[in-house]
Amino acid sequence: MKKRIVCMTLALMMTAAQVVSVSASREDELREEQAATSAQLDATYAQIDQLYSAKQQLQNEINALDANLVNVMVSIQTLEGDISNKETDIQTTQTALEKAQNAKTKQYEAMKERIQYIYEKGGNAAWFQMMMDAENLSDLLTKAEYTQKMYEYDRQSLEKYANTIAQVTQLGDQYKQEKAELEGMKQEYESESVNLQTQIDTKKANSADCDNEIAYAQQMATEYSNLIVQQQAEIEQLEAERIAAEEEARRQAEAEAAAAEEAARQEAEEEAAQEQENQEDQYDENTDEEDQEEISEDGEYTEDDEDTEDENSDSEDSSDDENTDSSDDESTSDSSDGVEYDEYGNVIDSDNTVNPEDVDTSSSSSSSSSGSGSSIVDYALQFVGNPYVWGGTSLTSGADCSGFTQSVYAQFGYSLPRTSYEQQNWGTEVSYADAQPGDLICYGGHVAIYMGNGQIVHASNSQDGIKISNDATYRTILSVRRPS
Predict the structure, then answer these.
(1) pLDDT tens-digit profile of 116-165?
(2) Residue 332 has pLDDT above 90, yes or no
(3) Spatial distance between the Cα atoms of 30 and 308, rounded to a whole number of angstroms
(4) How far apart are the C-alpha atoms of 398 and 410, rounded to whole Å?
């Protein structure tokens, strides 16, 4: 019977172990899937950061092109004003040229009339006739001088008008040339404005594409975050089921061990009682025989009777000891694989297989050498405003979210894992309602340091860098971890 009980106990323990093993296997698979999902989420957030940077770059280029386009349009308006002024100048010179030509024509016609009059009045003898008509020499000289002045005036007038016509004509040609140059510049600026507008339209289209890609990436990030939350919930459920199964297996093992021990004890008691009963029967038979012999001889008991009784009593005590030892051996050796259990079903490490050097004492030493949560926050706040660098761990030159928390906590003796997903399983988990300054706030693909009063300090993104956010619940919180 005792062997049957032991076999049943082993069978129950093996069944429970199989259930626990299946649960643990599925839990490990979910953790691997969650790790892969978290990596995809991190990659998606990195892509969003890159898209935001590209969009910002495009916006800067659009702003520069807009400024250039404004300058070009202003230049075109200025050229149009200059061209209008040149047209006015050309019109003015054209009017002056017409006046000069008219004056020259009039002067030329007057000079021809005077010359014609002189020649009609005497031809080559006109000078001789003028001298003959003179009253005296003074009158002759006066007439000769007047005639000479008249010729000089006509000649100078003709030269003056000729020069004026030449100057006006040259100025008109200059204005026409300048106008042509201005019109050419205007065409170039108009062409440049078209080119700039085309570039602006192209940049705006690319910016719109970035918006679409950002929207899609944000949608994927939301899906990854929701999937991580679902996976975390399933992991926690499986973990709870595994713990419950382990507890049930332990309880059943304890109950079965206690039942086996009780059955063995009862069986030992029954065997001892049966042995004692047999010995008593044997004693009674021997006593009757000896009594008969002694009565037949002298009617009294002898010392041999007392010796016989003592030997029977010693034999009975020896039998009880053997039964008790047998029961104890069965209770401490209850498995065929060499593992020993105590009366409560716990494993007895009789060989002391735990090496003291393998025990992790880093947590206790870290706690003793680390500062308070507020000290961690005060230290982290020194680096607000420093840049965000994907994959970086430098608090001054640039760090990403997990690199920032890893470097901050390292200053207080804590050794955090490198990625945000790994940091979700570090330390001791607490609820957000119990969060204290210095705790880690873990999101999907992101991690921050809790400051208290709903605020966090974190390496946000390439645009904002390391900053303070006033709402720690701006994203779904997956876990709150406290240094231990």
Answers:
(1) 555 555 445 555 555 556 566 565 567 566 666 766 776 777 677 678 77
(2) no
(3) 75
(4) 16
User: What's the farthest any 2 CA atoms get from each other in the chain?
Assistant: 233
Residue-wise pLDDT tens digits, 254-294: 888 888 888 888 888 888 888 888 777 776 666 656 555 55
| pLDDT cut 90: percent of the chain above it | 24
Beta partners for 199?
Answer: none
For the chain, report the end-to-end CA distance as a whole number of angstroms.
Answer: 50
| Residue in the block written with tokens 């910002």 | 56
The residues annotated with a catalytic role in the active site are: 401, 446, 458
CB atoms within 10 A of CB 38: 24
> E strand or H helix at 481, and its extent?
strand 477-482
The rounded distance, in Å, linking the Cα atoms of 110 and 5 is 155
Long-range contacts of 63-71 (CB under 8 A, 24+ apart): 65/196, 65/199, 65/200, 65/203, 66/200, 68/196, 69/193, 69/196, 69/197, 69/200
**For residues 6 and 331, what is the distance between their CA atoms, to the nearest angstrom?**
10
Strand ranges for 345-410 from DSSP E: 347-348, 393-394, 398-399
Helices (H), 298-391: 303-332, 362-369, 373-381
Asked if pLDDT for residue 308 goes beyond 50, the answer is: no
User: What residue has token string 């204290």?
Assistant: 436
Write phi, then psi, for 347 (nearest 5 degrees): -70, 130
pLDDT higher than threshold 50 for residue 176? yes
The Cα-based distances of 94 to 88, 91, 182 in angstroms read: 10, 5, 19
* pLDDT at residue 381 in the model: 97
Contact yes or no for 104/162 (Cβ under 8 A): yes
Give, in degrees to the nearest 5, the angle at Cα 47 between 45 and 48. Answer: 60
Q: How far apart are CA 216 and CA 195, in angstroms?
A: 32
CB-CB contact of 335 with 341 (8 Å): yes
Mean pLDDT of 405-430: 93
Which range is least confidently modeled, 151-165, 243-257, 369-383, 421-435?
151-165
What is the C-alpha to C-alpha distance for residues 45 and 53, in angstroms, rounded to an integer? 12
Burial 174-183 (b: 16+ CB within 10 A, else e): ebbebbeebe
